[in-house]
Amino acid sequence: MKKTTNNKTKEKFQSLPKSTKAELKIEVYENLRHQIITNQIHAGQRLVEQDLIDRFGIGKTPLREIYQELQRDELIEIIPQFGTRVVTLDIQTLKEVVQIRKALEGLCAELASQNISSTEIDQLSQILEKAKELESDHSDSLRILSQYDTDYHQIIYRAAQNKQLIKVIQSLLYKMSMYWFQSGFSMEDFKEQFEELEELLQALKERNASKAKNIMEKHIDHFLKLVKKQIF
Asked: How many domains does the chain have?
């Protein structure tokens, strides 16, 4: 019975137009990435290939390509004779990621202060307003705030107008967001982070490159301190 189901899934995927296959692959990748980052798929949890094929109606080859992308994002690890699982919080790796991201995020903020548009300034303001209005007892408040935080940083990256820098820094954002959820941050911790983003927005409005860089670097350092507080 299982084999028949597998064949039907395979046939259904193969019958899709090429463009639809590509869209489905992106959708599945983004879905899995989000679930891993927000700890809906837990640290150390094994990803069973056939279960995902059946669940998403995707082919084996594109799923393995998605695995490769998630591995490049350093969200999963593929272990010989075991399979694929979500990476777990490693404090040494986190320190290394923070060191790199601190330098790159500081550079992003510095460049953004010189290149950011009025539209992007407005977008950052809207994100901060929505974060303030979010009720602490909202059932999904942490995930929503995490998305706001990600959206905010993505705007900074775009405003920096350096494509190579964006490519390097993107996976670091995913990894740090995942550590955020794995370490069990509270709503109060998130709020502290958004207070710093308020200060950053003001520096960007002033076109103050050194101030923007300094605030962003402190923001990343603060993240590491909060993670350590949760772990130790």
From this structure: 2
